[in-house]
Amino acid sequence: ADLRFLKDYVICHGRAPEHTTTYCRGTFIEDEPFDMEKWRKGLQIKILDVAEDDMTFDLSGIDVSLANAFRRILLSEVPTMAVEKVFIRNNTGVIRDELIAHRLGLIPIKADPSRFKWPSAQTKAVDETGDVPEDEVLKFRLQVKCRKTPGGSLDDAVNARVFSSQLEWMPFGKQADTFACDPPVPVHGDILIARLRPGQEMDMEMHVHKGNNRGERGHAKWSPVATAWYRLLPRIDLLQPVEGELAERLVAKCPMRCFDIEDGPGRGRAVVSSERLRDCTLCRECIRDPDLSPAVRLSRKKDHFIYCVESTGALPPAELFKQAVQLLHDKAKGLLEEVEQLEGKALVEAQAEMLGEGCERSACTCCG
Amino acid sequence: MSGARGEEEDEVLECPKLETTPESTEFSTTFVVREEDHTLGNVIRYALNQNPDVTFCGYSVPHPLESKMHIHIQTKGISASDALKKALRDVMKMCDHVKETFEESENDYYASGGTGH
User: Fold this and answer.
1) B22 near B47, Cβ under 8 Å?
2) Which residues lie closer than 8 Å to A348 by C-beta, 6 or more apart?
3) What is the pLDDT of residue A368?
4) In whole angstroms, what is the distance from residue A140 CA to residue A169 CA?
5) Which chain B residue's Cα is nearest to A61?
6) What ipTM does the predicted assembly reach?
7) List of residues 6+ apart from B110 with CB closer than 8 A
8) CA of A117, closest CA in chain B: separation in Å?
9) How far apart are CA A247 and CA A244, in angstroms?
């Protein structure tokens, strides 16, 4: 196959894909040196679909390392708010305390994490609900008692099922004013937390902290996306004309209907459907058949990503992607400052070495 | 650092974010970066490889249980640390451009009648 094709496309065979490496500039003689302006023009983003909690967009002209970095950051480094501490006063239901606490932590909370500070060591160390900074913690309460309906049967009990809508926000300090327009609330009110029977009750208070899913101290409850993923743009080529009965077999095989029959002179010819080409799921049915496999070439474009971001509901998906890009920018900036600091230190040490011991005694102007 | 969750002040001072290994020289350096992983490593590696003055660049995570990353850079003409700085600046510029392009495409989407249904 043409070398330029191999440079831009991953070829998918019956087993593993081939030619998956992305090549840096300078590998091929015809490569021009990296030009930021040209790269800027080559980057394209096209939003395909936006729903309330998820969006799909095309991201192309970008290297896989950047696209993957955005995906990784979306999954684990964009912060959210989630229940971190649960102070249980009473729980006579059958679901044990720690299980309730675990479930409460996983409930997505609709609160904008940028309005909160990262919890300090003291906030994280409290072991009873008391004074905590109002810009670090949100307090919620869950007080549910299950009763028989008067005159009704036991099955007709009130509060037999405890839902996330029964979490009450308890504003303290100036929070009632600060969050008057958008009070913190669980994203979904219909999440079943526990089941109770008449006479059982649950009474607990919880603290919601800002956090992320990063490293050892992170937890998946703080991940802002249900998931975020991308796939590469599919491309299907028919290397030989596929006609007649073989064409009909090919069209029948593809579950996503990526092929069509075009009426040609005489017998019908198979062509790749341009509308449904994107739906190709790489099931490889079209190349499994030994008659069809020499004719069909499945490939994927290495620098064209069809991105899907599904938010848990705390923040809109577009906002999450922008935050992820900003986070990568900030990481690079932080490391740049570290490099400059390291260079500065090295320079100071080198100067000190050159001047030797005389530095300490005389009035030192070099070492700041 | 705003990225890591509540790291104690003392810990950060004892283990610096960025170091070089003892055998590094001006044109052949291994940078040891703490609290970073493939997310940043692969991106820096890509940015560095675009630089024609960089003769070799690679990154590795020495052990998956330890949050550390090595970036090894060999250069000709400029110092390895200059190459790293340029790469980081390029990454920042690329991120800015992605963000701008994304915002433009959002405007285009809503302008042409797209809905957040």
Assistant:
1) no
2) A366, A367, A368
3) 46
4) 4
5) B98
6) 0.89
7) none
8) 10
9) 5
